[in-house]
Design goal:
Blueprint: E1 5-9, H1 13-25, E2 29-33, H2 36-45, E3 50-54, H3 62-70, E4 77-81, H4 86-94, E5 99-102, H5 107-121, E6 134-137, E7 140-143, E8 148-150, H6 161-171, H7 180-188, H8 199-211, E9 222-225, E10 229-232, E11 237-238
Parallel strand pairs: 1-2, 1-3, 3-4, 4-5
Antiparallel strand pairs: 6-7, 6-11, 7-8, 9-10
Helix pairs in contact: 4-8, 6-7, 6-8
Length: 239
């Protein structure tokens, strides 16, 4: 299997050098840059399997870069933030980031997050080919293996990695209330959630907004259960 390509956008030269060496030793193909111009150059040379994107950058910030990237690609994005409050995380998620990590961080935690994202997107899978796992609801088809979602007219519904992971886990557990903690653990491999962490709520909101135009009037397939979590209320058909 060829090495997975990572692009790291970070303006701190020490952090860039550390991550390039550390992730390179883990057999990733690592490309680093300090700003949006360098990022555009690297993307033009070939889309990566994952982007590690710092928010605070000289010139164009990470939010703007993420917004531009989401205009033409769903490549996974892991954002780095120096702030411990929720604002940066929420904004990043609303722009389509798949995960975030607060500085300072242990490089091994970053590696674990990268591996988890690539596993979820199929980027680190050695599995042999098997029959497609298809789930259908309200005339929408979800291919869990190809990670694609099509509407009743056969048109692709573009979802980010985080949105697709959430939908896939809800589809595998229909008519069952899942707490925010359970969903965070299922989609991101985290067993702990800050009580003020709105990661799941933001992702649910964005997923609803993308599905709603393809559903009938008044149909809501993701139900909020007060003080409990979320429930996928639509009938799910396998195959």
């Amino acid at each position: 299997m060829s090495a997975k390509k990572l692009i790291i956008v970070e303006d701190d030269p020490e952090i860039r050098a550390l991550l390039a060496e550390f992730l390179g030793a883990e057999e990733y193909e690592v490309h680093v840059t300090e700003n949006g111009t360098g990022f555009d150059r690297l993307v033009a040379a070939g889309m990566p399997d994952l982007v590690v994107l710092d928010i605070m950058l000289p010139g164009e910030d990470g939010f703007s870069i993420c917004r531009r990237l989401r205009g033409h690609s769903n490549v996974p994005v892991l954002m780095l933030t120096a702030k411990r409050d929720d604002i940066d995380r929420i904004v990043g998620l609303e722009l389509g980031a798949d995960d975030y990590l607060v500085k300072p961080f242990n490089p091994r935690e970053l590696l674990a997050r990268i591996r988890a994202i690539l596993r979820r997107t199929g980027g680190d899978s050695d599995e042999v080919e098997s029959p497609r796992r298809i789930r259908r609801f309200e005339e929408i088809a979800v291919d869990l293996d190809a990670r694609s979602v099509t509407d009743p007219d056969g048109q692709i519904i573009d979802l980010t990695t985080a949105e697709f992971d959430l939908l896939a886990n809800l589809l595998e557990r229909p008519q069952r209330v899942l707490s925010r903690e359970q969903l965070l653990d299922l989609t991101r491999g985290r067993s702990y959630m800050d009580p003020f962490d709105r990661t799941i709520d933001v992702t649910v909101s964005r997923l609803r907004a993308k599905l709603q135009p393809h559903l009938g009037d008044g149909i809501n397939v993701i139900t909020t259960v007060r003080n409990a979590g979320y429930l996928f209320s639509a009938n799910v058909i396998k195959g």
